[in-house]
Each structure stands twice: as structure tokens, then as C-alpha cells.
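Researcher: I'm preparing a figure for a lab meeting and need a structural model of a single chain. I don't have an experimental structure, so a prediction will have to do for now. The sequence is pasted below. Please return the structure as C-alpha cells so I can convert it later.
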Amino acid sequence: MDEALNEIDRLIQQKNHSYIVTPNMDHIVMIEKDKAFRRVYRDATLVLTDGKPLLWISKILGEPIKEKVSGADLFPRMCNLAAKKHYKIFILGAAPGVAEQAARNLKKKNIGLQIAGVYSPPLGFENDKKEMVNILKKVNESKTDILAVALGSPKGEKTIYRIRNHICASLSISIGATIDFEAGKVKRAPRWMSNVGLEWLFRITQDPKRLIKRYWKDAISIIPIVLKYKGSKK
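Model: Understood. Here is the structure written out cell by cell.
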């Protein structure tokens, strides 16, 4: 985590339109089939592992990853860094009112934090040229240093990839459900569950209808992917 934050600070100062991805098991499954999403990951400046299962898989493949650095843990620390270094943050996405509440909560926790703006684009914005221009205008007029995108995956990452060279932000990151956590709309798993790799179980209790199917599908789909890459190392 400390190494990630140091690198984030360096990337912001470089002003090279860098972006971060935080893969979880669902992302890895999607990447195998979605070429556009794979391209986003291939060109990412910084890749941080969001999920204990990927740490376990990395050991199976003989290339162990040091630590889980989830977006939900990283983003609050990025806000603390931004407050200390006077970096501005723009939040794009989330349901109407959620980003505003998250911004208020984050500013209470981090004295001096500058939220340059928040905006919840309408559904289907990615296919609306006028709305895309509107988003670029709002982000650039804010003169933000960091763009935090809360649109879910893979839409969030693909949006960042599409606009990264047209915005003023030095660094962008897709933060997914993190904004709901910060707004107090969704509870996070207890720390002990996260530490032992059971955060997925807690999240299922929060949204069983949607997540049971997704997690089951990911658990089945990841097996041939692991075998594929384990076999390629022989």
C-alpha cells in the first residue's frame, strides 16, 4: 500500500495522463473475452490487486503478489494524500446524490481535501457525443489532478481509457463501489473478513440477487483460466 501511494504521488507530479486499474476475479474473467477491456488493462500505468483470491492464484502460478491493494482501501488513502499535497479530486459517476454525500464525508475525514467537482452522467452517456463533450468540459473546467470514476466495471475503466488524453487530470482511477462505501450507502465487510478473503461472502449478504450469480460464474470461469496460464509456464 505504501509503495502504491508513493507511486501515485509520483504519477500525479509527472502529469502524463496515467491511470490505475484494480483487478479482481471478475475482471480477470471479463478480460479473457473482452478485447477492449484487455487493451485497457494492457496499457494501464499501475495495476493493483483487488482481492485475496488473485493473491492465492498468483502463488499457484509461481509469481506471488506482495499484497492486496483494493480500491476501497486505496481511495481513502489517496484522499488523505490529496489533502496533504493539495491535489484536487473530481468524482465522476455514482447515483445522483451519492457522490455529493461521499464528498462531504471525505472532506470531514481529510481536512483541506479539495473535491473539484462531482457529476453523475445519465444512462447511455457513452453513446452520446454531446454528453461526452459535456463530461470533458466539466472535468477540465474543474482543473482536477485526480479523476475518480464510479461507473462500475468495465464501463469505468473503458471511460477512463477513452478520455484520458483529453482531460486535465494527471491520474485517473476506477473506484466502483468504493463511492457507495464512502457515502454510507453500502456497508463494507469487517476487516477480519477482508483479511482472510471472505469479503465476497459479506457482499453477497448485501446484494444476494445480483452477486450470488456473478460470484458463482466467476468461480467456475476462473478455473480454466488458471490452468491455461499454469500450462503456458511448463
